[in-house]
Amino acid sequence: MFLATGLFRSIGIWLIETIRHFKSPYVGIWLFWRPALIINSPEIARNVLVKDFGSFRNRFVAAGPGDPIGLNLLTADDPLWSSIRRRLTSIFTASKLRALQHLFDTKTSELIQRIDNTEDKTKISVRMMCTDYTTDVVGTASFGVKTNATLTGEDPIRTITKSFMDFDLLRGISWSAIFFFPEVAEFFRFKMFPKKSTDFFKRIYLTVSKQRQQQNVPGSAPKDLLDALISLKENVGGLNEELSDDTIVAQAVAFLFAGYETSGSSLAFALYELAFYPEIQEKLYAELVEAKDKCANNSLDINTLADLQYLNCVIKEALRKYSPMGWMDRVALVDYKIDDKLTIPAGTPLYVNAIGMQYYEEFYPEPEKFDPDRFLPENEKESMQFTYLPFGEGPRNCIGKRFAQISLRSALAKLVLNYEFRPLPGQPTPSEIDIDKLGLFYVPSHHLYLDFIRR
Protein backbone atom coordinates (compact mmCIF):
# COMPACT_ATOMS: atom_id res chain seq x y z
CA MET A 1 0.00 0.00 0.00
CA PHE A 2 1.41 3.40 -1.03
CA LEU A 3 0.74 5.27 2.23
CA ALA A 4 2.64 2.85 4.47
CA THR A 5 5.32 2.52 1.84
CA GLY A 6 5.72 6.28 1.53
CA LEU A 7 6.15 6.67 5.27
CA PHE A 8 8.66 3.90 5.89
CA ARG A 9 10.49 3.25 2.62
CA SER A 10 10.96 4.77 -0.80
CA ILE A 11 7.98 4.40 -3.13
CA GLY A 12 10.44 4.12 -6.03
CA ILE A 13 12.22 1.15 -4.46
CA TRP A 14 8.87 -0.50 -3.74
CA LEU A 15 7.76 -0.06 -7.37
CA ILE A 16 11.02 -1.61 -8.64
CA GLU A 17 10.56 -4.58 -6.30
CA THR A 18 6.91 -4.95 -7.31
CA ILE A 19 7.58 -5.51 -11.02
CA ARG A 20 10.46 -7.87 -10.26
CA HIS A 21 8.43 -9.93 -7.81
CA PHE A 22 5.13 -10.26 -9.64
CA LYS A 23 6.39 -10.15 -13.25
CA SER A 24 2.84 -9.37 -14.32
CA PRO A 25 1.51 -6.71 -16.74
CA TYR A 26 -0.52 -5.26 -13.87
CA VAL A 27 -0.87 -5.69 -10.12
CA GLY A 28 -3.91 -4.87 -8.02
CA ILE A 29 -3.41 -3.05 -4.72
CA TRP A 30 -5.64 -1.50 -2.07
CA LEU A 31 -5.45 2.15 -1.11
CA PHE A 32 -7.21 1.41 2.17
CA TRP A 33 -10.81 0.93 0.94
CA ARG A 34 -10.18 1.70 -2.74
CA PRO A 35 -8.89 -0.83 -5.29
CA ALA A 36 -6.18 0.51 -7.61
CA LEU A 37 -3.98 -0.87 -10.36
CA ILE A 38 -0.24 -0.70 -10.98
CA ILE A 39 0.65 -0.93 -14.67
CA ASN A 40 3.89 -2.80 -15.45
CA SER A 41 3.28 -3.28 -19.17
CA PRO A 42 4.51 -0.84 -21.85
CA GLU A 43 1.58 -1.81 -24.07
CA ILE A 44 -1.00 -1.02 -21.40
CA ALA A 45 0.93 2.12 -20.46
CA ARG A 46 0.68 3.25 -24.09
CA ASN A 47 -3.08 2.67 -24.07
CA VAL A 48 -3.61 4.60 -20.84
CA LEU A 49 -1.28 7.52 -21.59
CA VAL A 50 -1.85 7.96 -25.33
CA LYS A 51 -4.21 5.68 -27.28
CA ASP A 52 -7.14 5.88 -24.88
CA PHE A 53 -6.21 9.17 -23.25
CA GLY A 54 -9.81 10.34 -23.43
CA SER A 55 -10.69 7.76 -20.78
CA PHE A 56 -7.82 8.87 -18.52
CA ARG A 57 -7.67 12.65 -18.89
CA ASN A 58 -7.42 13.39 -15.18
CA ARG A 59 -4.87 12.57 -12.53
CA PHE A 60 -5.85 11.05 -9.21
CA VAL A 61 -3.81 13.53 -7.18
CA ALA A 62 -5.84 16.36 -5.66
CA ALA A 63 -5.12 19.11 -3.16
CA GLY A 64 -7.54 19.91 -0.36
CA PRO A 65 -10.16 22.64 -0.66
CA GLY A 66 -8.96 26.08 0.28
CA ASP A 67 -5.42 25.38 -0.86
CA PRO A 68 -4.54 28.67 -2.61
CA ILE A 69 -2.06 27.10 -5.02
CA GLY A 70 -3.39 23.55 -5.11
CA LEU A 71 -5.22 24.03 -8.41
CA ASN A 72 -2.21 23.78 -10.71
CA LEU A 73 -1.30 22.05 -13.94
CA LEU A 74 -0.27 18.95 -11.97
CA THR A 75 -3.60 18.56 -10.17
CA ALA A 76 -6.26 20.36 -12.25
CA ASP A 77 -8.93 18.33 -14.04
CA ASP A 78 -10.36 18.93 -17.48
CA PRO A 79 -11.51 21.33 -18.89
CA LEU A 80 -9.39 23.71 -16.79
CA TRP A 81 -6.28 21.56 -17.28
CA SER A 82 -6.47 21.47 -21.09
CA SER A 83 -7.15 25.20 -21.28
CA ILE A 84 -4.12 26.11 -19.15
CA ARG A 85 -1.93 23.51 -20.83
CA ARG A 86 -2.79 24.78 -24.30
CA ARG A 87 -1.83 28.34 -23.40
CA LEU A 88 1.45 27.42 -21.65
CA THR A 89 2.63 24.93 -24.29
CA SER A 90 3.57 27.78 -26.64
CA ILE A 91 6.25 28.93 -24.18
CA PHE A 92 8.10 25.61 -24.28
CA THR A 93 8.77 25.47 -28.01
CA ALA A 94 12.39 25.15 -29.12
CA SER A 95 12.46 28.68 -30.53
CA LYS A 96 11.14 30.26 -27.31
CA LEU A 97 13.58 28.31 -25.14
CA ARG A 98 16.53 29.42 -27.26
CA ALA A 99 15.81 32.93 -25.99
CA LEU A 100 16.97 31.70 -22.57
CA GLN A 101 20.53 31.09 -23.81
CA HIS A 102 21.90 33.98 -21.74
CA LEU A 103 20.27 32.65 -18.58
CA PHE A 104 21.86 29.21 -18.98
CA ASP A 105 25.23 30.69 -19.95
CA THR A 106 25.22 32.92 -16.87
CA LYS A 107 24.18 30.27 -14.39
CA THR A 108 26.50 27.54 -15.67
CA SER A 109 29.39 30.01 -15.51
CA GLU A 110 28.42 30.74 -11.92
CA LEU A 111 28.58 27.00 -11.20
CA ILE A 112 32.21 27.00 -12.30
CA GLN A 113 32.94 30.15 -10.34
CA ARG A 114 31.42 28.64 -7.22
CA ILE A 115 33.55 25.50 -7.44
CA ASP A 116 36.69 27.50 -8.22
CA ASN A 117 36.07 29.73 -5.21
CA THR A 118 35.64 26.77 -2.84
CA GLU A 119 38.96 26.01 -1.18
CA ASP A 120 38.11 22.44 -0.14
CA LYS A 121 36.13 21.09 -3.07
CA THR A 122 35.56 17.77 -1.32
CA LYS A 123 33.15 19.60 1.00
CA ILE A 124 30.80 20.64 -1.83
CA SER A 125 27.43 18.93 -1.53
CA VAL A 126 26.80 17.93 -5.13
CA ARG A 127 23.05 17.67 -4.71
CA MET A 128 22.76 21.05 -2.95
CA MET A 129 24.91 22.76 -5.58
CA CYS A 130 22.89 21.27 -8.42
CA THR A 131 19.54 22.18 -6.88
CA ASP A 132 20.85 25.70 -6.23
CA TYR A 133 21.48 25.95 -9.97
CA THR A 134 18.11 24.53 -11.02
CA THR A 135 16.31 26.77 -8.51
CA ASP A 136 17.91 29.76 -10.23
CA VAL A 137 17.07 28.79 -13.81
CA VAL A 138 13.54 27.57 -13.06
CA GLY A 139 12.81 30.39 -10.61
CA THR A 140 13.96 33.07 -13.04
CA ALA A 141 11.86 31.59 -15.85
CA SER A 142 8.81 31.21 -13.57
CA PHE A 143 8.81 34.53 -11.77
CA GLY A 144 11.02 36.82 -13.83
CA VAL A 145 13.30 37.74 -10.93
CA LYS A 146 17.06 37.54 -10.61
CA THR A 147 18.29 34.94 -8.15
CA ASN A 148 21.71 34.20 -6.73
CA ALA A 149 21.60 30.64 -5.36
CA THR A 150 24.01 29.13 -7.92
CA LEU A 151 26.87 31.37 -6.87
CA THR A 152 26.27 31.64 -3.15
CA GLY A 153 23.88 28.87 -2.16
CA GLU A 154 21.65 31.53 -0.62
CA ASP A 155 18.62 33.32 -2.01
CA PRO A 156 15.08 34.04 -0.75
CA ILE A 157 13.56 31.74 -3.37
CA ARG A 158 16.13 29.05 -2.57
CA THR A 159 15.21 29.26 1.11
CA ILE A 160 11.61 28.48 0.15
CA THR A 161 12.50 25.63 -2.21
CA LYS A 162 14.57 24.01 0.53
CA SER A 163 11.45 24.01 2.67
CA PHE A 164 9.57 22.24 -0.17
CA MET A 165 11.61 19.12 0.43
CA ASP A 166 11.79 19.41 4.21
CA PHE A 167 9.65 16.35 4.94
CA ASP A 168 8.77 15.13 8.39
CA LEU A 169 6.19 12.54 9.45
CA LEU A 170 3.24 14.97 9.32
CA ARG A 171 4.25 16.36 5.94
CA GLY A 172 4.71 12.83 4.64
CA ILE A 173 1.17 11.96 5.75
CA SER A 174 -0.34 15.09 4.18
CA TRP A 175 1.44 14.56 0.85
CA SER A 176 0.53 10.88 0.78
CA ALA A 177 -3.10 11.93 1.28
CA ILE A 178 -2.90 14.54 -1.50
CA PHE A 179 -1.44 12.02 -3.94
CA PHE A 180 -3.29 8.86 -2.90
CA PHE A 181 -6.28 9.70 -0.65
CA PRO A 182 -8.12 12.79 -1.91
CA GLU A 183 -10.99 12.31 0.55
CA VAL A 184 -8.54 12.43 3.46
CA ALA A 185 -6.85 15.51 2.00
CA GLU A 186 -10.25 17.16 1.63
CA PHE A 187 -11.38 16.28 5.16
CA PHE A 188 -8.22 17.56 6.85
CA ARG A 189 -7.82 20.44 4.34
CA PHE A 190 -4.22 19.47 3.62
CA LYS A 191 -2.23 21.93 1.51
CA MET A 192 0.58 21.18 -0.95
CA PHE A 193 2.84 23.91 0.45
CA PRO A 194 3.02 25.89 3.71
CA LYS A 195 1.15 29.22 3.85
CA LYS A 196 4.45 31.07 4.27
CA SER A 197 5.60 29.74 0.88
CA THR A 198 2.37 30.54 -0.93
CA ASP A 199 2.25 34.08 0.46
CA PHE A 200 5.86 34.66 -0.58
CA PHE A 201 5.32 33.60 -4.19
CA LYS A 202 2.05 35.49 -4.46
CA ARG A 203 3.80 38.72 -3.43
CA ILE A 204 6.49 38.16 -6.07
CA TYR A 205 3.94 37.41 -8.76
CA LEU A 206 1.76 40.44 -8.01
CA THR A 207 4.76 42.78 -7.97
CA VAL A 208 6.45 41.51 -11.12
CA SER A 209 3.22 40.99 -13.09
CA LYS A 210 2.20 44.58 -12.42
CA GLN A 211 5.53 45.77 -13.82
CA ARG A 212 5.17 43.49 -16.86
CA GLN A 213 1.62 44.63 -17.58
CA GLN A 214 2.75 48.23 -17.62
CA GLN A 215 5.63 47.45 -19.99
CA ASN A 216 4.02 44.98 -22.41
CA VAL A 217 2.20 45.96 -25.56
CA PRO A 218 -1.42 44.72 -25.51
CA GLY A 219 -1.86 41.68 -27.75
CA SER A 220 1.87 40.95 -28.01
CA ALA A 221 3.04 37.34 -27.86
CA PRO A 222 4.28 36.16 -24.44
CA LYS A 223 8.09 36.11 -24.20
CA ASP A 224 8.47 33.78 -21.24
CA LEU A 225 6.52 31.71 -18.74
CA LEU A 226 5.59 34.70 -16.60
CA ASP A 227 4.16 36.55 -19.62
CA ALA A 228 2.15 33.46 -20.53
CA LEU A 229 0.80 33.23 -16.99
CA ILE A 230 -0.22 36.88 -17.03
CA SER A 231 -2.02 36.32 -20.32
CA LEU A 232 -4.12 33.59 -18.70
CA LYS A 233 -5.94 36.37 -16.88
CA GLU A 234 -6.96 37.83 -20.21
CA ASN A 235 -8.03 34.66 -22.03
CA VAL A 236 -8.61 31.28 -20.46
CA GLY A 237 -9.45 29.43 -23.64
CA GLY A 238 -13.19 29.75 -23.72
CA LEU A 239 -13.91 28.89 -20.10
CA ASN A 240 -15.84 32.16 -19.77
CA GLU A 241 -14.40 32.80 -16.35
CA GLU A 242 -11.48 34.76 -15.01
CA LEU A 243 -8.76 32.81 -13.27
CA SER A 244 -7.85 34.05 -9.81
CA ASP A 245 -4.39 35.31 -8.93
CA ASP A 246 -4.01 32.22 -6.74
CA THR A 247 -4.62 29.92 -9.71
CA ILE A 248 -2.10 31.85 -11.81
CA VAL A 249 0.51 31.71 -9.04
CA ALA A 250 -0.20 28.00 -8.66
CA GLN A 251 1.08 27.34 -12.19
CA ALA A 252 4.38 29.13 -11.56
CA VAL A 253 4.91 27.40 -8.22
CA ALA A 254 4.07 24.01 -9.77
CA PHE A 255 6.65 24.59 -12.50
CA LEU A 256 9.25 25.59 -9.90
CA PHE A 257 8.43 22.65 -7.64
CA ALA A 258 8.31 20.09 -10.45
CA GLY A 259 11.48 21.41 -12.07
CA TYR A 260 14.07 22.40 -9.51
CA GLU A 261 14.36 19.24 -7.40
CA THR A 262 13.85 16.75 -10.23
CA SER A 263 16.43 18.32 -12.56
CA GLY A 264 18.82 19.13 -9.72
CA SER A 265 18.85 15.59 -8.34
CA SER A 266 19.16 14.11 -11.84
CA LEU A 267 22.19 16.32 -12.52
CA ALA A 268 23.76 15.34 -9.19
CA PHE A 269 23.23 11.64 -9.87
CA ALA A 270 24.77 12.02 -13.35
CA LEU A 271 27.90 13.68 -11.92
CA TYR A 272 28.16 11.01 -9.24
CA GLU A 273 27.89 8.15 -11.74
CA LEU A 274 30.52 9.76 -14.00
CA ALA A 275 32.95 9.87 -11.08
CA PHE A 276 32.67 6.09 -10.73
CA TYR A 277 32.90 5.48 -14.50
CA PRO A 278 35.97 7.45 -15.63
CA GLU A 279 35.92 5.88 -19.10
CA ILE A 280 32.40 7.22 -19.68
CA GLN A 281 33.44 10.59 -18.31
CA GLU A 282 36.40 10.82 -20.69
CA LYS A 283 34.34 9.72 -23.68
CA LEU A 284 31.86 12.51 -22.92
CA TYR A 285 34.69 15.01 -22.41
CA ALA A 286 36.18 14.11 -25.80
CA GLU A 287 32.82 14.65 -27.53
CA LEU A 288 32.39 18.04 -25.86
CA VAL A 289 35.92 19.23 -26.70
CA GLU A 290 35.51 18.20 -30.35
CA ALA A 291 32.19 20.02 -30.60
CA LYS A 292 33.54 23.11 -28.88
CA ASP A 293 36.53 23.30 -31.23
CA LYS A 294 34.16 23.32 -34.20
CA CYS A 295 32.11 26.25 -32.88
CA ALA A 296 32.95 29.62 -34.37
CA ASN A 297 32.91 31.38 -31.00
CA ASN A 298 34.28 28.37 -29.10
CA SER A 299 31.02 28.20 -27.16
CA LEU A 300 28.44 25.42 -27.02
CA ASP A 301 24.95 26.85 -27.44
CA ILE A 302 21.58 25.20 -26.83
CA ASN A 303 21.26 23.92 -30.41
CA THR A 304 24.75 22.43 -30.51
CA LEU A 305 24.28 20.63 -27.19
CA ALA A 306 20.97 19.16 -28.37
CA ASP A 307 22.79 17.46 -31.26
CA LEU A 308 25.56 15.84 -29.18
CA GLN A 309 24.79 12.14 -29.24
CA TYR A 310 26.78 10.88 -26.27
CA LEU A 311 25.84 13.80 -24.01
CA ASN A 312 22.20 12.95 -24.59
CA CYS A 313 22.88 9.25 -23.95
CA VAL A 314 24.48 10.07 -20.59
CA ILE A 315 21.50 12.20 -19.57
CA LYS A 316 19.00 9.57 -20.75
CA GLU A 317 20.76 6.90 -18.72
CA ALA A 318 20.85 9.10 -15.62
CA LEU A 319 17.12 9.69 -15.98
CA ARG A 320 16.50 5.98 -16.51
CA LYS A 321 18.23 5.05 -13.27
CA TYR A 322 17.05 8.03 -11.28
CA SER A 323 13.64 9.13 -12.52
CA PRO A 324 12.63 11.55 -9.75
CA MET A 325 8.90 10.80 -10.07
CA GLY A 326 8.73 7.05 -10.58
CA TRP A 327 5.10 6.76 -11.61
CA MET A 328 2.26 8.47 -13.48
CA ASP A 329 -1.16 8.46 -11.86
CA ARG A 330 -4.43 8.53 -13.80
CA VAL A 331 -8.04 7.87 -12.92
CA ALA A 332 -10.46 5.98 -15.17
CA LEU A 333 -13.34 8.24 -16.23
CA VAL A 334 -15.36 5.31 -17.61
CA ASP A 335 -15.49 1.55 -17.15
CA TYR A 336 -12.38 0.40 -19.04
CA LYS A 337 -11.28 -2.96 -20.43
CA ILE A 338 -7.60 -3.48 -19.59
CA ASP A 339 -7.48 -6.84 -21.37
CA ASP A 340 -9.66 -9.92 -21.83
CA LYS A 341 -9.26 -10.78 -18.16
CA LEU A 342 -9.89 -7.44 -16.48
CA THR A 343 -12.30 -4.52 -16.77
CA ILE A 344 -11.96 -1.75 -14.19
CA PRO A 345 -14.87 0.44 -13.07
CA ALA A 346 -14.92 4.20 -13.55
CA GLY A 347 -13.12 5.99 -10.72
CA THR A 348 -10.33 3.40 -10.41
CA PRO A 349 -6.87 4.95 -9.91
CA LEU A 350 -4.03 3.61 -12.08
CA TYR A 351 -0.29 4.05 -11.55
CA VAL A 352 2.01 3.52 -14.51
CA ASN A 353 5.15 1.98 -13.00
CA ALA A 354 7.76 3.98 -14.90
CA ILE A 355 10.76 3.39 -12.67
CA GLY A 356 9.88 -0.29 -12.33
CA MET A 357 9.98 -0.80 -16.10
CA GLN A 358 13.21 1.20 -16.31
CA TYR A 359 14.81 -1.27 -13.88
CA TYR A 360 13.31 -4.43 -15.38
CA GLU A 361 15.95 -6.77 -16.83
CA GLU A 362 13.73 -7.84 -19.70
CA PHE A 363 13.77 -4.27 -20.98
CA TYR A 364 17.17 -3.08 -19.71
CA PRO A 365 19.81 -5.80 -19.12
CA GLU A 366 21.97 -5.17 -16.05
CA PRO A 367 19.68 -2.33 -14.94
CA GLU A 368 21.87 -1.35 -11.96
CA LYS A 369 24.78 -0.61 -14.31
CA PHE A 370 25.24 2.95 -15.60
CA ASP A 371 25.52 2.34 -19.34
CA PRO A 372 24.78 5.29 -21.69
CA ASP A 373 25.58 3.06 -24.69
CA ARG A 374 22.17 1.42 -24.33
CA PHE A 375 20.70 4.64 -25.77
CA LEU A 376 22.93 4.81 -28.84
CA PRO A 377 20.83 4.66 -32.03
CA GLU A 378 22.14 1.22 -32.97
CA ASN A 379 21.14 -0.16 -29.55
CA GLU A 380 17.73 1.43 -29.09
CA LYS A 381 14.91 -0.87 -30.10
CA GLU A 382 11.33 -0.14 -31.00
CA SER A 383 10.32 -2.52 -28.23
CA MET A 384 11.75 -0.02 -25.71
CA GLN A 385 8.88 2.40 -26.38
CA PHE A 386 6.92 3.14 -23.22
CA THR A 387 9.50 1.36 -21.06
CA TYR A 388 11.35 4.67 -20.68
CA LEU A 389 9.12 7.32 -19.13
CA PRO A 390 11.09 9.90 -17.09
CA PHE A 391 8.90 12.69 -18.51
CA GLY A 392 5.76 10.65 -19.03
CA GLU A 393 4.09 10.35 -22.44
CA GLY A 394 0.96 11.55 -24.16
CA PRO A 395 -0.98 14.81 -23.89
CA ARG A 396 -0.40 15.00 -20.14
CA ASN A 397 3.36 14.46 -20.21
CA CYS A 398 5.80 16.85 -18.50
CA ILE A 399 5.29 20.27 -20.08
CA GLY A 400 8.79 21.32 -19.01
CA LYS A 401 10.59 18.41 -20.70
CA ARG A 402 12.53 20.59 -23.15
CA PHE A 403 13.42 23.09 -20.44
CA ALA A 404 14.71 20.31 -18.17
CA GLN A 405 16.78 18.78 -20.97
CA ILE A 406 18.38 22.13 -21.78
CA SER A 407 19.20 22.84 -18.14
CA LEU A 408 20.77 19.37 -17.76
CA ARG A 409 22.78 19.54 -20.99
CA SER A 410 24.04 23.06 -20.29
CA ALA A 411 25.23 22.32 -16.76
CA LEU A 412 26.66 18.87 -17.43
CA ALA A 413 28.59 20.07 -20.48
CA LYS A 414 30.07 23.08 -18.66
CA LEU A 415 31.07 20.99 -15.64
CA VAL A 416 32.65 18.14 -17.63
CA LEU A 417 34.62 20.60 -19.78
CA ASN A 418 36.08 22.26 -16.68
CA TYR A 419 36.49 19.45 -14.16
CA GLU A 420 37.27 15.81 -13.75
CA PHE A 421 35.10 14.16 -11.10
CA ARG A 422 36.55 11.52 -8.80
CA PRO A 423 34.94 9.49 -6.01
CA LEU A 424 36.02 10.15 -2.44
CA PRO A 425 37.05 7.50 0.12
CA GLY A 426 34.22 6.60 2.45
CA GLN A 427 31.49 7.80 0.10
CA PRO A 428 28.88 5.26 -1.05
CA THR A 429 29.00 3.76 -4.52
CA PRO A 430 25.98 4.61 -6.69
CA SER A 431 24.28 1.32 -5.76
CA GLU A 432 24.80 2.09 -2.05
CA ILE A 433 23.10 5.50 -2.09
CA ASP A 434 20.24 5.58 0.40
CA ILE A 435 17.03 6.84 -1.21
CA ASP A 436 14.78 9.22 0.73
CA LYS A 437 11.95 7.40 2.50
CA LEU A 438 9.69 10.27 3.58
CA GLY A 439 9.32 12.22 0.34
CA LEU A 440 7.67 11.16 -2.88
CA PHE A 441 10.64 11.75 -5.17
CA TYR A 442 13.39 9.23 -5.94
CA VAL A 443 16.19 11.35 -4.48
CA PRO A 444 19.11 10.70 -2.09
CA SER A 445 18.40 10.99 1.62
CA HIS A 446 21.86 12.41 2.30
CA HIS A 447 24.49 14.66 0.78
CA LEU A 448 26.75 13.38 -2.00
CA TYR A 449 30.39 14.50 -2.22
CA LEU A 450 32.99 14.27 -4.99
CA ASP A 451 36.45 15.59 -5.69
CA PHE A 452 36.54 18.22 -8.46
CA ILE A 453 39.87 18.30 -10.32
CA ARG A 454 40.39 21.33 -12.61
CA ARG A 455 41.15 20.33 -16.21
UniProtKB/TrEMBL annotation:
Cofactor(s), names only, from the UniProt record: heme
Q: Which residues form the signal peptide?
A: none
Q: Where in the cell is it found?
A: Endoplasmic reticulum membrane; Microsome membrane
Tell me the Gene3D superfamilies matching this sequence.
Cytochrome P450
Provide this UniProt record's keywords sorted from A to Z.
Answer: Endoplasmic reticulum, Heme, Iron, Membrane, Metal-binding, Microsome, Monooxygenase, Oxidoreductase
Recorded hits in InterPro entries, A to Z, give: Cyt_P450 (IPR001128), Cyt_P450_CS (IPR017972), Cyt_P450_E_grp-IV (IPR002403), Cyt_P450_sf (IPR036396), Insect_CytP450_Detox (IPR050476)
Please name the SUPFAM superfamilies in this protein's record.
Answer: Cytochrome P450 (SSF48264)
Reported EC number(s) for this entry are 1.14.14.1
Tell me what reaction this enzyme catalyses.
an organic molecule + reduced [NADPH--hemoprotein reductase] + O2 = an alcohol + oxidized [NADPH--hemoprotein reductase] + H2O + H(+)
- One cellular component GO annotation, for this chain's record? endoplasmic reticulum membrane
- Classify the protein's membrane topology as the record does: Peripheral membrane protein
Gene Ontology MF terms in the entry: heme binding; iron ion binding; oxidoreductase activity, acting on paired donors, with incorporation or reduction of molecular oxygen, reduced flavin or flavoprotein as one donor, and incorporation of one atom of oxygen
The residues the record assigns to binding heme are C398
- Using the UniProt record, name the top-level EC class of this enzyme in a single word: oxidoreductase
Could you say which protein family the record assigns here? Belongs to the cytochrome P450 family.
The job of this chain, per UniProt, is described as: May be involved in the metabolism of insect hormones and in the breakdown of synthetic insecticides.
Q: What is this protein called?
A: unspecific monooxygenase
**Source species:** Pieris macdunnoughi
